[in-house]
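Hey everyone, long-time lurker, first post.

I ran two proteins through the pipeline my lab uses and got sequence/structure pairs for each. Pasting them in order. The first:
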Amino acid sequence: MRNGTVRSAHSVKPWKNDKEGNTLEITKATTMGQMLDYDLGIADVLVKAGMHCVGCPSFIHEPLEEACQVHGLDVDRVLQSIHQYLQEKTA
């Protein structure tokens, strides 16, 4: 999301590394589209985790938690990988 912050009960911490300096708090409830719009590099993290449907039209509307369930992936592990990617990128 380019114009604000996404917050939920599953929040971890906000990331402030998009081009415009906007903040997106990536959580289990964040949709694939929001994440990819924020940082396209997250697609590589998702593919490496085993989510090979990154180009599917319905994919962009799914929250991370649902997408992980569909693919039999541990959402906490995938979320940790996304946060690690973003942390390394901003370090």
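...and the second, right after it:
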Amino acid sequence: MIMTVALLLSSCSQQACYDKTDPMMNAFLLESGTGVSVKAATIVVKGITATDTIELVNEKNVSSFAVTLDPGSDVSTFYIVIDGIADMAVINYTRHPHLVSAECGYTFVSELTGLKTTHNIIDTLIIENKSVNLNGERNLHLFY
């Protein structure tokens, strides 16, 4: 009996997970009116949930940022501060389970379905690519 258990345990090896498992929504900053890529002096992005606020981005001199969507909901709310001026963005999406690999298991990829923003510094926020997955593709254009 002990020998059988030892053989079974030794035959089950766990492989390490080396794959990316967090799909990121990528937003690119553009100048209103021209559509030219622009760098924000500072950008802070916080994810807001019913129970918590989590700082996701705190960068200087960047022209893009990436955040994760809430995997437990079909809506994520973000507090975005660009060069000291704050806005809110509400992103709606549908989630779908996605097998990353046998070693890493499943994650959720999302399909963006809509968005709303306040307009303090954000002029327009548009969806370029609806698919938020592990490929690192552009998803949003943020004009300010």
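Reply from user beta_strand_b:
Welcome! Quick read of the second one: The chain is about 5% helix and 55% strand. Helices lie at 2-11.
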